[in-house]
Design goal:
CATH superfamily of the largest domain in chain A: Urate Oxidase
Largest interface: A-D, 81 and 80 residues
Strand content of chain A: 35-45%
Strand order of the largest sheet of chain A: 2-3-4-5-6-7-8-11
Helix content of chain A: 10-25%
Structural class of chain A: alpha+beta
Largest sheet of chain A: 8 strands, antiparallel
Number of domains of chain A: 2
Radius of gyration of chain A: 23 Å
Oligomer: homotetramer
Chain lengths: 287, 287, 287, 287
């Protein structure tokens, strides 16, 4: 028996990068958060502190800024792939993982250079590239908070001695969508794809008469896959943001699904994958 | 010399209340966070633990829910005033402060009952009411993040031996607007007033060629007061969310205000009040 | 009627500063967060963008670092006073407010240079100094979370039609202490004073059989003032972190104050001041 | 090609449970946060909204409270296993994952029932149990923030055209330890094991003269495995909390590693696994 080094990676997390492109007086903003992780010939660094194979995380940060200047920042998936491919050009770096978050800005006024941040929703991606040229792209979004004030039921569930929940035939269904979808390739039109997926998620959430959040989850995933041939798998994490009707009977008041208490914790948490039955293997895509 | 009880108040903070109004198949959502604080004949409670004068914070929570059912929740200022007035109907409660935050929702799809949360911005208010009928209303917003990618300079400042900052003739100006404005009375059209103030803040931020964030702050406040006769004072807290151009010269690259590092801490913090010189006394409005 | 500039201040918030002092192989760490705010001849900056009177917030940050090197960082109150006094040496700066937070570290191992962060509690202070030599110091702590699992009651309270709370004769009392205390002067032994106050707060919280959180609050404040002649006023903010016994009767189980649900929101919020009846005026101390 | 349901699970997250045990006047507190996730015969729930196989998350919450009352809450690993085993007793539940966080409390005063929260560190575990009786336990801790003020170097690293970092022969090394370790079995003395691991992590962090954070990470993992025969694998996530010496030369001051700026973002992030070469397969332990 011996103690050995297992899987490992190192990188610079959360390099905040804003790029401004000037089209005459009309400016365009790209606001991203870049996290890079490299792995490769790292045994000596761990075992003896010999850093000859280690590309400093400070250099990784510099590289994000420099490549943004040299190549621009288009779709975050393309920028993540560019960075990942770049890093694997080093002999000692066998694999690179690059995650990018993007924050949206909307124009305000007519100055051409004034913007307001677009809420709490964040666009995400994770790209991998290894020295053998294998690559993967997962796109996503997080923080998209949605609610149906009717059209949601929950009954007919399994009961046991610890069950006190009453069946519901009309309840609020609210969640904060965290979705990540895997592309079959690495060269999609990621802007179009993102817009399409986001639209499908909203449509399916709104349009599904829900008998459970699981059913809504599946409908959302199915809608995305049906509409986007390039996407082979989608993973959804949906917290059930409970809204409980307040019991107003002690005050002589009825409450026909009008007044709700929005609870924090605990919360339901529904996680699920929807995929094509002929989806290619995911490899390292989800790591 | 004696040790005595000074100013005090007690209440229920952050009662999360969602109200759904059904107009046939078209639903309307009001999503608020209510915090009530009462003060009055509280000496015995503090000194001897005699709670005869204390309205439990649990009752305050119940009251928020019940009054929402009985009277609806219109503009948050009106609901805050309603609650504050209600509480001062108790003999032992001499003063009530009610703060309400409101979270916005936008419709999605065409179901009439489906919504998505509107970002990070929050509408706020604080209303006071005392047993002598005095009342005040402060409205506000927080979390409105804005940016000008040009049109901002900073130079000609005071220097001393600890100054290393270079003058800037073209910089990014970004901030998260936290604004609160005091109404002269308590019966404004708060919906119209809020929309007008928000518009003024955005217009003045975007439209001001800024020589300092202080100048922008004043311009924002002045614009609001000029447009809103009902408002007599506005207080703005503007963090300077620094965006520093990255030095790419070591990599043989120029950087003409294209690639920025968005910093977290430290940050500038500019706070200021703009008011009418004939504004009535604020009394307890800002407490 | 005219629109005018009211009270204002500007500064650098959250300058993170760590100082290491080497006593041979034994190191000492001071980990602080410094926020400076200046006010004075700021009309032109706001009205015309003329910054001649403005000491850049970047310079304020530099000053915090330089003065830490020149004078060390002893008790945070002394360092805050040093900085505030320094800034008011500028003609255009009439008043300075300096807030400092301190994070504790405990030694680990016997290396003399190894430390672990001491939890969630933070020591705080706010010092003011103006150009006329007036000064004030408020010390404090925040994030001290405490709980009594018995010795707390709450009954005999005011009831109205919205009251459903049952009287409690034995409940958990838990809170996160946020305390700030005003010193009569500016030259106390702040280390000794802090230790004494913290001890009093804990003793009074633990030792008070509580009939309400208000009573506990007063007991905590009174204990501090009785023990610390230098302190003339203390302000306490005590959220009531509710722990509700879970109803296990549906499962055929009793629950004699054994199993609790620790709730997040809403929460009670008790705020109060305890002071000496001959306390000197607070002036700007609490601003 | 068809669209199909992939891996999925559902549960109740963050059930906050506090248990008080009374040993005469001496009370003992257990403060935990329980998250349960179940999977099994969930196709119908996703595809048709038939919930016959679904144990409501509300029931899962009730079960956590009820089993705490029936069996007590000892070591969190044992409680997690108890819950996981319980849930798999249902025919439709094939697998259960239970995560528990524990928050520490220290006694204050001599009342026997008074406590103060122990800082930011959290003890964690994740237990799995399936209907075939397979089980796994991963223990952990998070939020343990440590710092060496010397004894850390970083040089001899790979350089490329984007490298500007200067080699360091004496720097601060600070991190927030996030460690999770896998037990070979499910019946360890988890209290003793936790104390031993925590001690090893601190000793190895303090006692390692570090040439890179990777080297420190490996030393920490190796120390744990060498000391704990029951543990077969440990995973460490170590953010590099950069402390940069401030350049005081512009002010005519030297800075011999005395005054540091503690940075927020970006930060290095070092992740690694240390394991025995004969460790049994992890199965679902890390899921």
């Amino acid at each position: 028996m011996a103690i050995v080094l297992g899987p490992n990676r190192y990188g610079k997390a959360e390099t905040r990068l804003v790029r401004v492109v000037r089209d005459g007086g009309v400016h365009h903003v790209k606001d991203v958060n870049v996290s890079t992780s490299l792995s490769g010939a790292m045994s000596e660094a761990h075992l003896t502190g010999d850093n000859a194979a280690v590309l400093p995380t400070d250099t990784q940060k510099n590289t994000a800024y420099a490549l943004a200047r040299e190549h621009g920042v288009g779709q975050i998936e393309d920028f993540a792939l560019l960075l990942a491919r770049h890093f694997t050009g080093h002999d000692t770096i066998h694999h690179a993982r690059v995650a990018v978050e993007e924050y949206g800005w909307n124009r305000i006024g007519d100055t051409g250079h004034s913007f307001a941040r677009d809420g709490g929703e964040v666009r995400t991606c994770v790209a991998h590239h290894d020295r053998d040229g294998r690559a993967s792209v997962v796109s996503g979004l997080t923080g998209l908070v949605v609610m149906n004030t009717t059209g949601s039921e929950f009954h007919g569930f399994l009961t046991d001695p610890y069950t006190t929940l009453e069946p519901a035939t009309d309840r609020i269904l609210a969640t904060a969508v965290d979705a990540r979808w895997r592309h079959a390739g690495t060269s999609a039109d990621f802007a179009a794809s993102f817009a399409l997926v986001r639209g499908c998620l909203l449509e399916a959430f709104a349009g599904t008469h829900s008998l459970s959040l699981q059913q809504t989850l599946y409908a959302m995933g199915e809608r995305v896959l049906a509409a986007c041939p390039d996407i082979c798998e989608i993973r959804l994490t949906l917290p059930n943001r409970h809204h409980f009707p307040v019991d107003l009977a002690p005050f002589g008041l009825d409450n026909e699904n009008e007044i709700f208490y929005a609870a924090d914790r605990p919360y339901g948490l529904i996680e699920g994958t929807v995929l094509r039955d002929d989806a290619p293997g995911a490899g390292f895509a989800w790591e």
